[in-house]
Amino acid sequence: LVMEGDLHRALDEYQFKLHYQPKIDVMTGFVVGAEALLRWEHPTKGTISPIDFIPVLETSGMIIDVGQWVLEESCKTLERWNEMGLWREGTRLSINISPRQFRRNAFVDDVVQTLNKHKIPANSLDMEITEGIVIQRVDEAITTMTVLSEYGISFSLDDFGTGYSSISYLKRLPVSTLKIDKGFVRDIIDDRNDRVLVETIITMGRLLDMELVAEGVEQTDQLKILQQFGCHYYQGYLSSPAVSIENFEEILMADA
Ligand code: G
Ligand code: G
Ligand code: NA
Ligand code: MN
Asked: Is the CB of 21 within 6 Å of ligand 1?
């Protein structure tokens, strides 16, 4: 059981880490970006998954501080990769933004300040959001996203297909990328319904001029189907799980 006090200590004692999972071009196999994923390296319990502590961060409000830490750490990482010549212009690091963090009044200012502090061009950052962000406050969400988009930040709609009214939001939100939930990709070979859904999402996304990222790709046969359907990018164990910054830098160097 994760307690709030443990999470305060985790932040104070630098027990949080970011791991990075490559985003891969479906056709060329090149790394075109990465998703930053939060990890808690507990001194005695080992690595704790965000599934087990993000809900506690959300309900306690601590997600604001931890979310800001994730943003700061991501910008530091981009600064480092820029200095090392590892980060190609036009490629983006994606960070996950929780609804509570996104809805805060100071969110835009904090983001802009953090980018400036680390001299990071806004077009090297992508924000992964879920539909939870727009629930009850669609107009506010659109305003926040529009302002950040004008700076150059892009938005990806995460876990697409798992919510309630995804399609109606597509029309209204300034989202440039759809992430096809790994639940659809898992059985894409054996389950005809999943295969049809994935093809339909890709076709719709492409017609709406969006980019598509398939999540949870583990097998070459899954990748082949995604290639046929015209999916642009993928993430998954077939390429790499999320890895430490050092290991991700090795991936970038091998890819250069
Ligand atoms: O890596 P995986 O177990 O790595 O992530 C589990 C869940 O935790 C995913 O739904 C992911 O979106 C979420 N998550 C990972 N990192 C972050 C983060 O930095 N902020 C938020 N809000 N969610 C995250
Ligand atoms: O909610 P979000 O899509 O951000 O969460 C991504 C989650 O999927 C993380 O927990 C991440 O570690 C996990 N993940 C990444 N690649 C794969 C994969 O190939 N297979 C499975 N089962 N999970 C994956
Ligand atoms: Na995500
Ligand atoms: Mn997802």
From this structure: no
